[in-house]
Recover the amino acids of this structure.
């Protein structure tokens, strides 16, 4: 009955590889997000989708491509992985943006290590 | 450009003491200020939040104090417990940010028994 789930929890890969992280929420929310937490624990938003439409795209390299097949899922695909991509990636979701002030619920995170 | 500045970076408190974490923001369009708590290996979870139309909000041992004119807000944890040991993040949202939470740098709180 997990609200926001991510797979995998850990991902270890070589430089240059392509990998994907999956996120699913069962809260009925319309908006989903990807955040990156670096080694200093700083959290920064990467992308946001509202009802499958991209609404926030921060200055993230083109190697990162989010995909939302439906409102409950937001996946993150990363091409040509680099050492600097090593971080913890969090998926989050929130109710519709009409209020734009609602709680964001975070998943457990995916720790990506690029060797 | 860091729009939300948080201090201190780390804090050590004895059990039963008061933990105080401070944040300052720059963007006057922000109108929602949540605090998140993160335990090791877990995702951030909302602890308490405030809107700028009130100066204080209390939920159990946790209180947010908000000073709109100074553009500052703080989290007070009364009767701190070892189970409160975690990383705390302040954040801000509002204006045309479309749900974009801007986080502070985080404070690692350690409560000694």
């Amino acid at each position: 009955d997990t609200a926001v789930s991510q797979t995998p929890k850990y991902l270890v890969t070589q430089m240059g590889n392509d990998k994907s992280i999956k996120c699913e929420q069962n809260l009925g929310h319309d908006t989903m997000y990807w955040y990156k937490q670096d080694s200093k624990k700083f959290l920064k938003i990467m992308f946001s989708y509202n009802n499958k439409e991209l609404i926030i795209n921060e200055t993230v390299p083109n190697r990162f491509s989010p995909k939302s097949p439906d409102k409950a899922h937001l996946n993150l695909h990363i091409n040509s992985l680099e050492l600097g991509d090593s971080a913890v990636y969090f998926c989050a979701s929130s109710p519709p943006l009409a209020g734009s002030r609602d709680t964001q619920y975070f998943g457990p995170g995916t720790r990506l290590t690029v060797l | 450009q860091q729009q939300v500045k948080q201090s201190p970076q780390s804090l050590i408190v004895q059990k039963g003491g008061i933990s105080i974490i401070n944040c300052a923001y720059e963007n006057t369009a922000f109108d929602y200020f949540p605090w998140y708590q993160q335990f090791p290996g877990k995702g951030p979870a909302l602890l308490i939040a405030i809107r700028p139309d009130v100066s204080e909000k209390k939920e159990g041992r946790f209180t947010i104090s908000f000073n709109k004119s100074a553009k500052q807000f703080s989290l007070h944890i009364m009767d701190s417990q070892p189970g409160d040991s975690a990383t705390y993040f302040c954040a801000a949202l509002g204006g045309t940010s479309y749900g974009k939470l801007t986080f502070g740098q985080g404070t690692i709180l350690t409560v000694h028994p």
Notes: The longest strand of chain B covers residues 30-38. Chain B has one domain: 4-112. Chain B touches chain A through 26 residues (CB under 8 Å). The two ends of chain B are 38 Å apart (CA to CA).
